[in-house]
Amino acid sequence: MERGTKKCLGCTIKSTAVSILNQNELSVLEDGCSQHEFKKGELLFKENTPAHSICYIRSGFVKLVKKGLGKKDFILNISKSGAYLGVQHLSHKQGNCYFSAIAITDVQVCFIELDVFGRLLESNGSFATEVISYIFEDEMNYFDRLVNNVQQQLPGRLANTLYYFRNEVYNQKEFNLNINQTELASLIGTSRESVSRLLKEFQQAGIIKMEKNKITILDENRLLEIKHKG
């Protein structure tokens, strides 16, 4: 992790929510905010450690991980630039980090002190509305994937996840997956062997192309058909 700096007032990549703040509010934010850089694989914060801040992703991708039964890692989500992580830390009932956040690419983040973020939510209704809108959209995406993982067969779950990566995470048909097949299996609730077999089947069917960790969606209509059939 590289050392933090404070540059809110002159930041050129503010979130939609922060762009609403006036100069005085930006000064308040800057006093309670620091920028940091993490290398791929580094831990941003750890589950069950004291929570002191909200994490805003300026650039890069982060996986959110929670320990399940047998201390096995379960990937909750892949978050990208523009995401606020740990907003639930604002609850006095949640004094510790609910999950771990780990960089899957090099990332730049801002850590915003909880009391500063809370004061801005209270003082600026438009700022609060934008933050709530982000949380709502993020939760709906998570709930949709959770329901699909429960109701769909494995081909549908994999198709749903690839479509999620294509449209919600990377926003393009060709992308570096940034997680390995074991982690992909964790995300959709199956084994690495099953994921590897099904990826090969998708490739042989001309739905995707794989080159090491790069995936290209070749037939989006077919992927959607599998996604909807489950």
Characterize the structure shown:
By secondary structure, the protein is of the alpha+beta class. The chain has helices spanning 16-19, 23-31, 114-123, 125-151, 154-169, 181-188, 192-204, 220-229, and strands spanning 2-5, 33-38, 43-45, 53-59, 62-67, 73-79, 84-85, 100-103, 107-113, 174-176, 208-211, 214-217. A five-stranded antiparallel sheet has the order 1-2-9-4-7. Strands 3-8-5-6 form a four-stranded antiparallel sheet. A hairpin with a 2-residue loop joins β11 (208-211) and β12. The radius of gyration is 19 Å and the shape is elongated. The protein starts with a strand and ends with a helix. The mean pLDDT is 87.
Please summarize what this structure is.
The chain is α+β, with helices and mostly antiparallel strands and 230 residues long.
Could you list some keywords that capture this structure?
230 residues; alpha+beta; 5-stranded antiparallel β-sheet; 4-stranded antiparallel β-sheet; 8 helices; 12 strands; 42% helix; elongated
Helix content: 40-55%
Number of helices: 8
**Total beta strand runs:** 12
Largest sheet: 5 strands, antiparallel
Q: What order do the SSEs take from the amino end to the carboxyl end, as H and E?
A: EHHEEEEEEEEHHHEHHEEH
Measured between the Cα atoms of the first and last residue, the distance is 41 Å
Structural class: alpha+beta
